Amino acid sequence: MPPTPSHLNTLLRLAVAQHASDLHLSAGLPPMARAMGALVPLGSGAALADETTSLQPNTSPSSQTSTASLTHEALLALLTPLMDAPAQARFAKGHEVDFAFAVEGLGRFRANAFMQQHGCGAVLRHIPQHTPTLDALQTPRVLPELLKQVGLLLVTGPTGSGKSTTLAAMVQHLNTTTQQHIVTLEDPIEFVHTSAQCVITQREIGTHSHSFAHALRAALREDPDVILVGELRDLDTIRLALTAAETGHLVLASLHTRSAAASVDRIVDVFDAHEKALVRTQLSEALVGVITQTLCPAAPQHTGSAPSTRCAVFETLVATTAIRNLIREGKTAQMQSAQQTGAAHGMQTMAQALQEARAKGRIAAA
Predict the structure, then answer these.
(1) Which CATH fold topology does 134-359 show?
(2) Rounded Cα distance, 229 and 246, in Å
(3) Which pTM does this prediction carry?
């Protein structure tokens, strides 16, 4: 029988039940899931066998196992209806595309579809149905105070560390505690926000604007109080984000860096040599703070059981006078020492954060 949306929905339900962050679908391979940071076979038993076999019209009964591979044609038939017309056009032209879609009862999924050696492939990342609160994520206690300021507030960490979730929780906190205009620029839109006390404008790169830089330039003319930039990808976007932060806006943005010091260096290093001194000065004045996060196995609910979920642990840097001076003088190597001794300002290094999380029983012992 031809593949239908219900087939994909079942695979997605299996992935969510497995606490997987991502579902990997590749022509010529069985479905895989990233659970607890490792790439493992999706589900087990007859449920998966039935779904993958139903996508293979010529599969014999003897090969109907949980290792059944997916065909290029089946994947195209499943993925194409999930894309809107612009996304389908981008996929046809460039052989890769980012998009998002929703499944009732499961939430939203961020997808990247692409062509590869054996045909079509896709990675589908699960976005929870409900936006978590800052308290639920156990974000740093100083974060609500940082959100009251204007300037640049960075959320950083490696791919898959939960940056989008933290940014969404920050937006939701502002949405329920302030009366502002929040503009989000995302690629694609992940968490869908409902305006509460704030007016929230969500714009998707590729659908509502050509690029982050174009959208950010336009956002400055849309009377924003808060601008969320999904990712500081290039020189133009970083330059505009600094300008927005300097001119009285709160700019929330993400970077793929693993520490506060690396985040400062990444921003400065994007610029030409003759601009670096000026950019360090700009950044020293505009920066509010840096939240760097990683995901760790959560402490098991029952003694002797293996961890089944992960939780975020946060390094925190607050832009105190001392930190601003270090940024201005290019002494980022000394920032970690300032974090270690800056507990009174709400700062801590990742090592300190991990130690505290273990002591509180939040994460599994090393």
Answers:
(1) Rossmann fold (3.40.50)
(2) 15
(3) 0.89
